[in-house]
Specification:
The structure is a homodimer. With about 190 residues, chain A is of the alpha+beta class. Chain A folds into two domains: about 35 residues, Ubiquitin Ligase Nedd4, Chain: W; about 130 residues, Nucleoside Triphosphate Pyrophosphohydrolase (Alpha-Beta Complex). Chain A has three helices and ten strands. In chain A, strands 4, 5, 6, 7, 8, 9 and 10 form a seven-stranded mixed sheet that branches. In chain A, strands 1-2-3 form a three-stranded antiparallel sheet, with no helix packed on it. In chain A, a hairpin with an 8-residue loop joins strand 1 and strand 2. The radius of gyration of chain A is 20 Å and the shape is elongated. Chain A starts with 9 loop residues before the first strand and ends with a helix. The interface between A and B is large, with 48 and 48 residues. Bound molecules: zinc ion (ZN) (2 copies). The site of one zinc ion (ZN) has 6 residues of chain B, from loops.
Chain lengths: ~190, ~190
């Protein structure tokens, strides 16, 4: 019985192993509905811009207007929604947080954070035009040259990871996506 | 209030836009708990084996013991669980469905099926030793040479995609993961 169709129904959940399953789930006593708790996907992008083909690359960052890490800088990223693709989700986040239209070029990295059951899929993208602004979840949106990135005011470890891994491959056409950087086990387990 | 900590609580959900959100969610009238419905991740692997380094590659397939597509052949794959990484999940599925220990080499493909809000992450993997058996969800587990793969009895389109894309890169060290093959829009939207 799909939950989507019965939003106002009363559910009373008990933790038990459903028939044919091999681990405990939240099962409703009234209607057998199973509330599966699944890992969540975050989709985001390292978004770049060049004034001219020879100009130095700049990076689009958003200053967070909301907790957690309000006031700190991040790349456009957020939870993937229903009925979209990973790339559509990453483009939507750039639109919502930075009022920016982006062109996604490749998958940069897949980060696993099993402690909070999160999979982050970070992409390599370009601004389609030099047009951006603070969306509802941002205080400010700005282009930074690499040396001007406010490294001490970055919101999350994975933003560091993505920016630095991007620098390793930014002139390569074909590369395998990165994973969590070595030595970050304590942050994710 | 994390749902995980109150499994037996009664929830009565109404569809409304929570504060600070921009789309309708299922919000509990009693406790403000929000039931987010998120895309789900499937993790799987194309698993190969060679009798000797020069021998022809063989592919590990499982005959499904459960619906959907009972009696049809698939690669080891299933829903990612909480508190594991994507690679751990793919290895767990090989263990559960094929009683096999695998070594994961790379991310082969990311398939998006937005119609059912599913993201499939398929890997390239090798059997660690020639040891496998039917797990609870399998009727039979077998190694097939490429030409012997039962192409007419494959369970899902994405199994076709993964096997064929694997053939394109199986001797390459570095490659970008594939996406949905061109022309499959009707299957996924
Ligand atoms: Zn119920
Ligand atoms: Zn409640």
């Amino acid at each position: 019985m799909p939950f989507e169709n019965q939003p106002s129904q009363n559910h009373s959940f008990t933790l038990k192993v459903p028939d044919g399953d091999n681990r405990e789930r939240h099962v409703c006593d009234n209607c057998e509905f199973v509330y599966y708790i699944n890992p969540k996907i975050v989709v985001g992008s390292v978004v770049t811009w060049r004034e001219t083909p020879d100009a130095e690359e700049q990076f689009l960052l958003c200053k967070r207007a909301i907790e957690p890490r309000k006031g700190y800088w991040t790349i456009p990223a957020g939870f993937m929604e229903q009925n979209e693709t990973t790339e559509e989700g990453a483009a939507r986040e750039a639109r919502e947080e930075a009022c920016a239209e982006i062109e996604i070029r490749a998958l940069l990295a897949v980060y696993n954070i099993p402690r909070i059951s999160q999979v982050q899929m970070m992409h390599v993208a370009r601004l389609r035009e030099k047009k951006f602004a603070a969306g509802e979840e941002s205080l400010e949106v700005k282009l930074f040259k690499w040396d001007d990135i406010p490294w001490d005011e970055i919101a999350f470890p994975s933003v560091h990871w993505a920016l630095n891994q991007y620098r390793e491959i930014h002139d390569r056409q074909v590369f395998a996506p990165f994973g969590n950087p070595p030595g970050t086990e304590k942050l994710v387990r």
